[in-house]
Amino acid sequence: MKACSIDSPVFRALGRQDPKAVFGDLPTPCYVIDEGQLIKNCEILSKVMRDTGCKILLAQKAFSNFAFYKQIGNYLSGTEASGLFEARLGKEEMPDKEVHVFSAAYKEEEFEKILLYADHIVFNSPSQLKKYVRRAKDAGKSIGLRINPEHSTQEGHAIYDPCAKGSRLGTTRDVWDKQMTKELIDCLDGLHFHTLCEQNADALAATLYAAEEKFGDVLCRMKWLNMGGGHHITKEGYDIPLLEETVRYAQKKWNVQVYLEPGEAVALNAGFLLTRVLDIVENGGAQIAVLDASAACHMPDVIEMPYTPPLLDPFAGRKNDCAGGKQNAECGAAEYAESGAEEKIGAAANDTASEKIGAAESGKAEEKHEKRGDGCVYSFGGPTCLSGDMIGSYVLRGQLCVGDLLVFGDMAIYTTCKNNTFNGMPLPNIYMRGKDGQISLLKRFGYEDFKNRLG
Description:
By secondary structure, this protein is an alpha/beta fold. The chain has 17 helices and 17 strands. The protein has helices at residues 19-23, 35-52, 69-73, 84-93, 108-117, 126-138, 173-179, 182-187, 201-219, 240-254, 264-267, 295-298, 301-304, 335-338, 341-345, 359-372, 447-451; strands at 2-3, 30-34, 55-59, 78-81, 98-102, 120-123, 142-146, 190-192, 224-226, 257-260, 271-283, 286-291, 376-381, 390-396, 405-409, 429-433, 439-443.
């Protein structure tokens, strides 16, 4: 369960304003991408590049809103792609920058097209390397192989752990020794590993040392080393000095060009999902607000990760004066907007870590707050027929009404690139909030966008 906030890094750029004053009457649901925050993130990443000599790429799987690629390209070295379409997008929209591509397996009918767009091609297995390397070399591409250091640094995110037992991602040392011939090794320009998910630099350092133990004799023969993504570099509290120390260690040890390819770090806290309350229903004493935004359709990582996204205080800068529901004095604890109530509830508002709260635990928390008068507890769900289309439970400092505007934070990453039209849900329009605070439309969606996907 989370408390809403106005002071977390997710919402700080908005100031202490009524959400309506910031976003006006935008039709909901919709995404708003904050250009200013995006640039701030890129400035942090650019400084890491300057300080260390490493190169940082945008991992498009997390953020592929190409309307911002020109701004991002002013700071970063290029893009990372997971296949043909992302490789083409990176080449077309950041044309003077590097394009790297990795796929667990390439399709024969797509590989020739990939050669048109990618500069660096990373293979997942010795068999894929053997199949395609000659064509890639003849096309002048830099060739890499993904390795598996077999060193897991994650807890509770097995779905995102490439080092989990039985993982299909990356070549283990055992497989390397069995299948990598001298001819294949001689074709390699670099090695790639990607093992992290929303982690700090200590996890990267531990992974690098594991990679050194497994593949140190090979790394000294390489021109570059790509340390993948999952680095939360732009999150408050991230250990940038340790990151830079780790990068320098690799560069000095093996004389390689180091690449990093974060996705979240580029667009962290740079987007919002706006939604309105359609109805409020009750079940077993619980208050459930049905929204016009869906977790399953519009923020699928909420269910897949899972996590509870941060929520902007809907009563910031105003009183809850909705008809039929006056402000509840017991629910009006302003401390939730000002004194770190996130920690009271047990999670920071900008923490995207998994929050698995069992029914019994949730019930205890709700009872505790009702007795203490600290806030009004609501669960939020989408309008689809999926019973599990739930966003999470929150403590608000006032009573919601139908029509109230809600703003979820950190909605630039893994949203617009992963959303869907299940149940015929419309795709949310996408807006940009410029550095000057002005909001403009980037993309409008309608019925034809739903229909054209199906036939």
